[in-house]
Design goal:
The structure is a homodimer.
Chain A lengths: L2 E5 L5 H9 L4 H4 L8 H11 L4 E8 L2 E12 L2 H4 L1 E10 L8 H15 L4 E7 L3 H9 L3 E10 L2
Parallel strand pairs in A: 4-5
Antiparallel strand pairs in A: 1-2, 2-3, 3-4
InterPro entries (chains A, B): Acyl_CoA_acyltransferase, Bact_Acetyltransf, GNAT_dom
GO molecular function, one term (chains A, B): acyltransferase activity
Keywords (chains A, B): Acyltransferase, Transferase
Chain lengths: 152, 152
């Protein structure tokens, strides 16, 4: 598969939000309508101008088929180490089950190494046991609880 | 308790690294020696210059007794929402068991709300069941698995 990876641009925004909304959980959280709610563009501007964020799109034959966001968070812990965190991973529904997820994570792991991170982390909803199995197959260890406090 | 909160300065660095090292897991990860390894100062400089990071110290009677780092991560998900993440929380061993943790988390929750976050999240090691219980008492839900992939 000739997947290509690049940072998202403003021109990708509608496609990306479409991907985010095309998901069981995402459908209840997003507002995918045209014109897009302004909050998406506001968030994009902040993410794109932040050197510690990589909002990435994945293309296959010139078509946008997946997206994810990598964050590189600097801490004092681990002697001033960098943690990479991956979130908002979505593969287009028409392209699932074809190994894109594995390829994308292999890319993300390499990218995290290239940027000097000592760890790549994510949280996955316990309601998705197949996702946890997938992450374990990539070498992730489920050593932690992912605790969430919704503020609204 | 008259706790005061402020952003860490360079002058706090030795005290903070001392707190991070004064911990069962931290003892194996940190290098607390004087002069401090340069990587701590390098990380501090990056964190302090990042408007999305708040490396915070907590003082009691003018003494530094705790530290934590709040990160505000912008995503396109949740209609361009902000997630607050808390990490590297440490209370001085001489001051544990006195309710500082609860007070600090109440502050962090309010701070996350003030900055417009829709969620406050953290991961906690499954080897620390009492920590999970503590977070649950604050309203956190253990809905997710915290998956980690060490890269070194």
């Amino acid at each position: 598969m000739a997947l290509t990876y690049r940072l998202a641009t403003e021109a990708d925004l509608i496609d990306i939000v479409g991907l985010l909304a095309d998901d069981q959980l995402g459908a209840t959280r997003e507002r995918f309508q045209l014109p897009l709610p302004a909050t998406y563009m506001e968030a994009f501007t902040i993410i794109a101008s932040d050197q510690h964020q990589e909002l990435t799109v994945v293309e296959l034959d010139g078509q946008l088929v997946a997206t994810f966001q990598l964050s590189f968070i600097h801490y004092l812990t681990y002697q001033g180490g960098i943690r990479a965190q991956i979130e908002a991973v979505r593969v287009k529904s028409s392209h699932r089950g074809q190994g894109l997820g594995t390829a994308i994570f292999q890319y993300a792991i390499q990218r995290a190494k290239d940027r000097g991170a000592h760890l790549l982390q994510l949280t996955t909803d316990k309601k998705r046991p197949e996702a946890k199995k997938f992450y374990k197959s990539l070498g992730f260890v489920d050593s932690h609880e992912g605790m969430k406090l919704h503020l609204r």
